[in-house]
Amino acid sequence: MNDSQSSPSSSSSSYDSAVGPPQANAVGSSSSSQGISPTVSRSWRDVFWLLIFMAHLIVVGFALGVFGLNRFKQPDRLNIDKYTMGFLENKDGLTEDYWSLYAVAGGVGAFLGWTWLLLLGSRANQMMKFSVHLLTTYLAVVSVLCFWVHQYFWGGAFAIGSALQFLYVISVIDRLPFTMLVLQRAVKMVWNLPEVTRVACISMLVMLLWLSLWSFGAAGVVALGIGDGGRWWLLLVLSVSLFWTGAVLCNIVHVVVSGMVFLVLIHGGRESNSMPPKPVMRSLQYAVTTSFGSICYGSLFTAAIRTLRWEIRGLRSKIGSNECLLCCVDFLFHLVEFLVRWFNKYAYVQIAVYGKSFNHSAKDAWELFQSTGVESLIAYDCSGAVLFMSTLLGGLVSGTCAAVWTKIKHPERVLMVGSTAMLMGMILVGLAMVVVESAVTSIYICYAEDPALINRWDAAFFAQISEKLHQRLQHRSARAREVLSHRIDDQVQAAVLA
To answer: Taking a C-beta distance cutoff of 8 angstroms, is the pair 186, 436 a contact?
Structure first.
């Protein structure tokens, strides 16, 4: 029986035997990756969430078609208005009036994403540095434009966003050199794996197909005469659906890239004779079958929790000696850390390699990092935030281009079209960024499980990352001693006063 005819369980067995867990889980271990053996069989995981996601796609897809067709070419094509005449204000508006505006956002987002992938090997680091510093300025400019068109709420929101972005960059400025070092190595890894960039390009095409339907329905909603409040609520529901769908597609790419990077590090190179056949296709097969439910489940929560974690960490480092505020922020910090234990992006590497459920993968990954001390290194690294800034900038550019054209053709719908178009652009650019983010997460997982893998791949990088880990562990120990000493002094003083 040849490979193309083999059953999923048999292909799973050969793949798992190539990427099972290393025997040692401590940084500095000298265990070899050659003694790897499978521990978890490939089976369907988190099937409930797979069914929920598929049902959601069917329901939302049907609703999008109805909203778009109802106002396509002629008002109220499907005779929906007769059911809303009693409580909604029905006006004339056509889907095609706004559909072309969303096409601008889709085109700009796809152009930025594909351009980033094309420049991945030669200009990626310069583009990321540029994004970090440009985002603050761009948010400020958008804020001014919002005030100019009398959108004071959104003008204030973008102004606050610009200020928070500036404060965040200032608070992590000392971490950026190490962050760029990690990103450089991740780019180096991905650039030598052209298969994964092709997967990202294909995923962008798939997303564009879904966006063509989504924007058709969204344009129909904008054309509805139900008042701004009703339109905004409908667009909010559609945007949440789009966010989940985009996150699922991004994390499919994440799983594919993670599986490929892990294999390359385990086997010592892409051209190694021990590499299993068609590794990218097998990773993709698992991502859209047995592991698809886990991807759907994790995609609901990981992005929001990760963003909240970045903001709380930045706020926590800037509080100073305000004990009351510090206590409140510490409570939020520990709450988010608890959530991170169950919802983190490193779970996707475990899903790609071992086929575990999402919560099991997230828990194992976080416990691995905490037991080896690598969690302190991850907390210091800002690569995820830098990539998110690039994604956000791409979304803002896409949204701005759509908003400018909307201002010319339908000035009363600028904010409505511009905000939803920004989400479209963010998803398309994010599909390009996830390639590098996946490589970063895989590098950290491999370093925690068996540092020899990183040493064999890039000895200079291994030395640099090990030195930084040693510094972070020393810093954490010194801080713990300082806190303990402070508490003992407070207790002694309290006892004396008593």
So the answer is: yes
